[in-house]
Design a protein that fits this description.
elongated; 52% helix; 3-stranded antiparallel β-sheet
Length: 153
């Protein structure tokens, strides 16, 4: 599964022309920016040189939620930043949610790392046990060899 999120702005004014995000399933190809411009009606009147494209990273939960909830989005070419018109209460809610989602993701990663460590430790314990059994068998063989050699004399 692959994620794509794009915002298309006019370079001359910084106004948002179009935005979208979606997740693909299976081997569904992600369209190129050029394909978007050719196929999305609000973008068809523009050429790539007149459009500024911002691609949203799948892990950037804060930006994704800001895009979804903003009344208006502009692009400032001076700072190369998006400007979101969002009510302060909504923005605080978005930031809290993104913080919690990031924390959950970190905890899930930590749990995965702990599980991996436990599996590796279990494997090391098994290897140690097998090595001990091997040493015991070698000792038993050596003792049998001595008995056999001594019994044959």
């Amino acid at each position: 599964m692959a994620y794509v999120g794009r915002l298309y702005f006019r370079k001359d004014t910084g106004h948002l022309l179009y935005w979208y995000e979606y997740e693909t399933i299976g081997n569904t190809p992600i369209p190129t920016i050029e394909q978007d411009i050719a196929s999305i009606k609000p973008l068809k009147d523009f050429i790539l040189e007149n459009i500024h494209v911002v691609e949203i990273d799948q892990e950037d939960l804060l930006t994704r939620e800001k895009v979804r909830r903003a009344k208006e989005i502009l692009y400032d070419p001076q700072t190369e930043q998006q400007i979101f018109d969002i009510d302060s209460g909504v923005l605080a809610e978005i930031e809290r949610r993104a913080l919690l989602e990031n924390r959950i993701s970190q905890i899930e990663t930590s749990i995965g790392n702990i599980q991996t460590s436990l599996y590796q430790k279990a494997s090391l314990d098994e290897v140690t046990q097998i090595e001990q059994e091997k040493a015991d068998i070698e000792q038993a063989i050596a003792e049998l060899s001595i008995l056999i050699a001594g019994g044959g004399a």
